């Protein structure tokens, strides 16, 4: 078997065109969706992601701004910035780029964001709504992954989904969304003892570890769908995922590449959430 590649970049281009039409209509009604991204410090990767979010927003007609704060900013100062944005009617979406410097407790920041403006879908209220199957702003990477599966009509119900990684932003919520669509979900992590035995049972394998080549054909059941979330920058500057792509291609039915896979879909989900927040659909 040779896997079909799910091109996240192409899908994202198509979805952005659809969103642009919707934003054009909203603008005619004098509603200009607006996203504010807060960037703390000078991490080059964060800066590049944030610029990517701004560029994508412009492509669909979402107005966006980046608020830059120094690496030394205190938690109190950052909370002040969030408070102002919460109270600014023209701001529909607020995203605080992670990671944050160590003097700041991430949970305090996420909890300070108005859940109706939490376009990352990280606020405990939004996570709780997701867990109970209510309509809300969903975490961007997991929602992007579900959109990729739906785009290929890959059935989820009754399938065994194995998720490697249990972070609050990727692993846990992607498992929850798959469960909501009636998959049987297994979570693996750094303390999992028999990783290969578990991954070989997966009909859908989601890999979100952050280390190159943790998965190859030996870990994959023939015909499985393999979703590679990892973004690893190699010494020569190239990007690679967590999955040995050439090897996995031989066993999988579908596979997502890195780059041009899950990454662009994360940004597409962010735009989707910003439009949803602007329309006031989140109570
Ligand atoms: N494409 C995209 O849009 C996005 C990509 N990413 C990328 O996805 C990757 C994961 O991100 P994130 O979830 O934030 O990372 P974290 O570092 O928060 O989580 C990594 C997870 O992998 C688990 N893990 C580590 N080593 C192993 C191992 N040897 N075997 C099994 N599990 C292991 C950890 O286990 P434990 O919990 O026990 O420590 C942890 O749960 C990164 O490469 C990141 O850059 C992230 C966000 C968006
Ligand atoms: N509050 C917050 N929300 C996030 O959503 C968030 C975050 N913090 N911190 C970091 C991670 C990482 N992340 C990515 C988004 C897009 C690509 C992406 O578009 N990648 C392109 C390549 C881009 C390149 O070439 O650098 C691709 O995979 O094709 C990657 C990674 C969002 N994150």
Automatic annotation (TrEMBL):
Gene3D superfamilies (alphabetical): Leucine Dehydrogenase, chain A, domain 1, NAD(P)-binding Rossmann-like Domain
Enzyme Commission number, as recorded: 1.5.1.5, 3.5.4.9
Pfam families: THF_DHG_CYH, THF_DHG_CYH_C
UniProt entry tagged with the keyword Metal-binding: no
Pathway: One-carbon metabolism; tetrahydrofolate interconversion
Originating gene: folD
Transmembrane region(s): none
GO cellular component: cytosol
This protein's name: Bifunctional protein FolD
GO molecular function terms noted in the UniProt entry: methenyltetrahydrofolate cyclohydrolase activity; methylenetetrahydrofolate dehydrogenase (NADP+) activity
Alphabetized CDD domains for the sequence: NAD_bind_m-THF_DH_Cyclohyd
Binding site for NADP(+): 165-167, 231
UniProt domain Tetrahydrofolate dehydrogenase/cyclohydrolase catalytic: residue ranges: 6-120
Domain annotation Tetrahydrofolate dehydrogenase/cyclohydrolase NAD(P)-binding: ranges: 139-279
InterPro entries: Aminoacid_DH-like_N_sf (IPR046346), NAD(P)-bd_dom_sf (IPR036291), THF_DH/CycHdrlase (IPR000672), THF_DH/CycHdrlase_cat_dom (IPR020630), THF_DH/CycHdrlase_NAD-bd_dom (IPR020631)
């Amino acid at each position: 078997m040779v896997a079909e590649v799910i091109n996240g970049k192409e899908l994202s281009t198509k979805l952005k065109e659809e969103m642009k039409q919707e934003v054009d209509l909203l603008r005619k009604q004098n509603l200009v969706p607006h996203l504010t991204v807060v960037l703390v410090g000078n991490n080059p990767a964060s800066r590049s992601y944030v610029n990517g979010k701004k560029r994508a927003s412009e492509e669909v007609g979402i107005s966006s701004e980046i608020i830059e704060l120094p690496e030394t900013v205190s938690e109190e100062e950052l909370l002040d910035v969030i408070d102002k944005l919460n109270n600014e009617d023209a701001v529909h979406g607020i995203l605080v780029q992670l990671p944050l410097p160590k003097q700041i407790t991430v949970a305090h920041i996420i909890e300070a964001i108005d859940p109706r403006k939490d376009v990352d879908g990280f606020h405990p209220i939004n996570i709780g709504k997701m867990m109970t199957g209510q309509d809300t702003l969903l975490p961007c990477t997991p929602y992007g992954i579900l959109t990729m599966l739906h785009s290929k009509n890959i059935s989820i119900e009754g399938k065994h989904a194995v998720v490697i990684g249990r972070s609050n932003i990727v692993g846990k919520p992607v498992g929850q969304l798959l469960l909501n669509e009636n998959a049987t979900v297994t979570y693996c992590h750094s303390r999992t003892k028999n990783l290969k035995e578990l991954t070989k049972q997966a009909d859908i394998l989601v890999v979100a570890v952050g280390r190159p080549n943790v998965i190859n054909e030996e870990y994959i059941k023939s015909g499985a769908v393999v979703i590679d979330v990892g973004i690893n920058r190699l010494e020569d500057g190239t990007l690679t995922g967590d999955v040995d792509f050439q090897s996995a291609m031989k066993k999988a039915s579908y596979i997502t590449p890195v780059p041009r896979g899950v990454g662009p879909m994360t940004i597409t989900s962010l735009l989707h959430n910003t439009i949803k927040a602007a329309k006031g659909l989140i109570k």
